[in-house]
Write a structure and sequence with these properties.
By secondary structure, the chain is an alpha+beta fold. 41% of the residues lie in helices and 23% in strands. A hairpin with a 2-residue loop joins strand 4 and strand 5.
Length: 133
């Protein structure tokens, strides 16, 4: 039986999910209309290229929320770097008003939290229980 919960590579079995949030510079409300639609397209294309699964994505006028699942060889920093760098370059080329309003599209900062099927307390208890076996 193949589970949808886990993914496999030739060396590992994994289920790594990340909640990612990042904002435009100065938290400007620029992620609307055509920019929002194109941003969504670009993020989906980049995710497909990297073989990252976007489980959920919401683009707000001044920030982005994403829940992604990725290969363990990709750090969260690398994933965000790829998304931000690619989208900034293309959006600023296609929408000159972004270049006029912002010195760079994205802030340097971001939020990331790992998201798993099993809670931290369950993992702690499982490890503690191993000693007695």
């Amino acid at each position: 039986m193949v589970s949808l919960r886990w993914r496999r590579s030739n060396k590992s079995v994994y289920n790594l999910g990340y909640h990612l949030i990042w904002c435009p510079k100065y938290r400007r409300h620029v992620l609307t209309g055509q920019v929002e639609m194109r941003l969504k397209e670009l993020l989906e294309l980049k995710a497909k290229e990297l073989e990252i699964s976007i489980e959920k994505m919401e683009i707000m006028p001044d920030h982005i929320h994403m829940f992604v699942k990725a290969d363990p060889t990709y750090s969260p920093h690398f994933i965000i770097q790829q998304f931000k760098g690619n989208t900034s370059r293309i959006l600023r080329q296609e929408f000159p008003e972004l270049r006029r309003r912002l010195p760079t599209l994205w802030t340097r900062s971001y939020y990331v939290e790992s998201v798993g099927h099993i809670s931290e307390s369950v993992v702690r208890k499982y490890i503690e229980d191993q000693k007695g076996k």
